[in-house]
Amino acid sequence: MSEERRRPGRDRILAYGPLALSRGSEGWVFVALCLVGLGLVFLGDLHTQPGGSVGALAFIPVVAAGWATSRTQTAVVSTAAIAYRVAAITLGALPFTTGAAEVLTIPILALLSHLAAEWVTAATSIERSLHRAQAEGTRLAALEGAKSEFLRLASHELRGPVGVVGGYVSMLDDGSLGELPSGARRVMPILVSKLRAISLMIDQMLETARLEDERLVLHVRRTDLGQLLTDCVEDMRPLAEPDHHLDLELPPEPVLAPADGGRVKMIVTNLIDNAVKYSPEGGPVRCKLAKDRGRAVVEVSDVGIGIAPEHRDRLFKRFSRIESHATMQIPGTGLGLYVSRELARLHGGDLNVDSCPGEGSTFVLDLPLNGD
Ligand code: ADP
Question: Residues lining ligand 1, CB < 6 A?
Fold first, then answer.
């Protein structure tokens, strides 16, 4: 708004010529010029009477006024033009019939030209808003690009050192580096679980960067989903227990699906990790695998804080976290569900949620079995 005020004429003069200058206070300069024009025309009429072509020039300032001024200014100039016509008729400079017809035409002409001026102004302002929106779009695209680049670089750079630390921690944990003092042994589970959380975050960042660059390629193989779920649950058990009990329910027959095992494991790990994180009071976390009408269905349920219906659409968006009193202290990036749903959809499946605030949530992953 203030930007527009500071440079009122410049753009318009460039785009529509000097007439457009007069919107605002300069409009009165135009009114004055129009009135001088009318006076000159009037003198010309008297001189070349009766009427004649000079009289027709009276319309020029009227039209100009319509283009150049606000409604009030247009009204002033048209009234002056009408007064001029009436005076010209009275003084015998114009025949009555010609003059009367022109008097009727003047306000209509002024109004039409004024409306045209309004449209031009509206078009200018739309054009300017469009330019602003385009500039904003370019800025946002550049920001998005920088964010993706940061994700890609940060996750790449972190992966190496975190892998090395992870290697040493597991050697310490399994005793390959010698017997640990009892104090160190007590903190080992914490170290292992925190490292697992960091690795999961780095994987989510890497997958997000790949999804954005459209570089993510699935390596699809016939995968035993029962075995995959068992591995996930066993990997996550140290992180979940003792506050959460992990339960696994598998169908009697194997469930084989064409899938990228690493990626499906990442989805299920994200879901179990969330189920544990968002059940701060503890409680069971149940993983269930079933077949349903040609699809494999994996359910991960908890009895945690739950999700209000109005937040459900946001959950699966990038960097989207639900900020509430209950989630304030729980760490996260807001990438896990976004990546998980995108991966599920790349498989031809989907990820959805059913939840009741205060009672818990069930995330449902379905994947095609392709006739298996
Ligand atoms: P985050 O890293 O924040 O956990 P996610 O994408 O995995 O990111 O989850 C997005 C948001 O969805 C979380 O911030 C949390 O508010 C909500 N959420 C995810 N899983 C659960 C769950 N099992 N129970 C309650 N809220 C959940």
Answer: 270, 274-275, 278, 302, 304-307, 315, 320-322, 327, 332-338, 361
Whole-angstrom distance between the N-terminal and C-terminal Cα of the chain?
A: 64
Residue 321 Cα to ligand 1 midpoint, Å, equals 6
Q: What is the pLDDT of residues 98-147, one digit of tens each?
A: 667 666 766 676 677 667 767 777 777 888 899 999 999 999 888 888 88
Rounded to 5°, the CA angle 225-336-302 comes to 65
Give, for 193, the enclosing helix (H) or strand (E). helix 182-212
Write out the two tokens for 85.
């016509």
- In degrees and rounded to multiples of 5, residue 246 shows phi and psi of -90, 125
In sequence order, the 6+-apart residues with CB closer than 8 A to the CB of 124 are 11, 12, 15, 16
The closest-lying atom of ligand 1 relative to the alpha carbon of residue 204 is 2
Q: How far is the CA of 333 from the centre of ligand 1 (A)?
A: 9
Closest CA to 228 of 209, 270, 256: 256
Query: Which residue's structure tokens are 């000079």?
Result: 54
Per-residue pLDDT tens digits for 20-61: 444 455 566 666 766 776 676 666 666 655 444 455 566 666
